[in-house]
Amino acid sequence: MIKVLFFAHVKEKAGVYEASIDQNLMTVAQIRAYLKTTYEIGESDRVMIAVNEMYADDRREVRSGDVVAVIPPVSGG
To answer: Where does the sequence pass through the membrane (predicted)?
Structure first.
């Protein structure tokens, strides 16, 4: 099982802070597709994804037991 944590406005859009994906192996790209279909997070291609507290690209493999953070883009100065 892969644990997913949502932050900021993505959390509000998903309606939950935390979710689980019942898979043993996925790529970050597959997780993005899952977010689009399951939580209707249309901007999932723009959110940053961290796996086990390290930013990851779409090719990164995510395994059961990993924690994925879904972080919207931020700006500021």
So the answer is: none
Separation of alpha carbons 53 and 40, rounded Å: 24
Domains, the chain: 2-71 (3.10.20.30)
Beta strands at 25-27 and 61-63: parallel, antiparallel or unpaired:
antiparallel
pTM: 0.90
SS3 sequence, 13-42? HHCCCEEEECCCEEEHHHHHHHHHHHHCCH
d(CA 56, CA 15): 24
* Amino acid 20: pLDDT: 97
Distance, CA of 43 to CA of 53 (rounded, Å):
21
